[in-house]
Amino acid sequence: MSLLDKASIIITPNGVKATKLYAYKPDNGNGDMTWTCGAGTRRNVVGLLESMAANTPRINYPINGGCPVILLEPQRTNLLTYSEDFNGAIWNNFRSSDSYGTTISPDGSVNATSLIEDSTASATHVIRGNVAKSAVSLKYTVSIYVKANTRSKINLNLQSGSISNRSFATFDLLSGTVSNETNQGTFSEGSASMVDEGNGWYRCIISALSDTDTQINTRIELNDGSGVSYNGDGVSSVYIWGAQLEQRDYPTTYKLANGSTVTRLKDVGDRDDIYTNGLLTAIGGSWLVELTDNTVKTRDAVGGGLTLDTNTGGKTNGLEISNTNGTDRFSLSKYIATVLTTLYTTTTDDCKVLFNWDGVLLDIYENGVLVVTAEPFTITAMEFLQLNCIDQTYSIKQNIIGEPLTNSEAIQISTI
Fold it and tell me: pLDDT per residue over 192-226, tens digit each?
């Protein structure tokens, strides 16, 4: 018997439609997941950002090819009320101008904007987006898609109402590198990164802990290579598109805003009657999940996770993969009579994790290594599989439920 034969449910980035994520196995519908979520974006098979309707699972492809993932994200809001219209009410130019529709954006449309410096000498050339906030210190993340034109560097700033209080960095749009990461004044915990989005576009990202000012502003400065204060020539520019500000410490997928803030609801997938339909039995079982982008993150909220449980919402009698610690990679846990016991915290960005139990004892494997052994676990009648990403983003390559495995089989199937 092959490992495929021992699997009763196989869920991969496969077929989807509104409200449904189809299982590869079984083919009678007993493994299909019911899906709810807000409208969002994903990267499609040709590398373009694509809008997806509400309640439709998102199959997200890597920019340079390879296997896609099932993308689940927590609820998030784009606080910038104009994300592509840089003439919108929140945006102000200082010694710069902007021109809409000058090149193709990451969504494949001719809707990107040129940010053009004026000819002022010994000055910065800036566009700034202003957002009101409460008078408390909070973690924010700003992101914007930028492409080199006749300028190939920018500085991206997350600041209060005063330029003296900010976190910023320099982004090289040719080499794809970040430099000069700086916290200034009353801003702290700043970090910067950039993501290659193809066709010369990069998503430039700044996260920081704000001060208690009542403004949180996004500031984009042109950089001539020597710095941000220089003699403008009146024509040089970069391309910009898709600005987003989120009140959390890492970015999620882009949400178009055109006149108001936009909130995307969290992704949730549900499958019930697993035990009733004989897809798990009293002899025990196995549950494999392959995850990518399993980096250390601060969770959005307590709760959620990937759960296999006797209760429809999990956290009663069963197993869980979640950000239990609040600021870590995913943890693997069990619940017995609603009592949580964290058994293991994953260690790698890309990982295969496997729960394997025989009705009495539980073993856990990560990337082909047995990491937890002989943990008491007598729960068998787990009816409900739920993918509920209230806590953070999940990128899932495969999700397999089946019979208990031998040690050699467990090592084989959990090895990357």
Answer: 999 999 999 999 999 999 999 999 999 999 999 99
Q: What is the pLDDT of residue 376?
A: 98
Spatial neighbors of 203 by CB under 8 A, at least 6 apart, are 143, 144, 145, 194, 195, 197, 242, 251
275 beta partners: none
Whole-Å CA distances, 354 to 20, 173, 332, 366: 25, 40, 9, 7
Q: Which tens digit of pLDDT belongs to each residue from 311-336?
A: 998 999 999 999 888 788 999 999 99
* Tokens representing residue 221 in the block: 């400065």
* Contact by Cβ (8 Å): 356, 363: yes
Handedness of CA 342, 343, 345, 350 (dihedral sign): negative
Q: pTM higher than 0.90 for the full model?
A: yes
According to DSSP H, which parts of 166-281 are helical? none
Which has the closest alpha carbon to 356: 347, 369, 341? 369
CA torsion sign for 168, 73, 62, 110 is negative
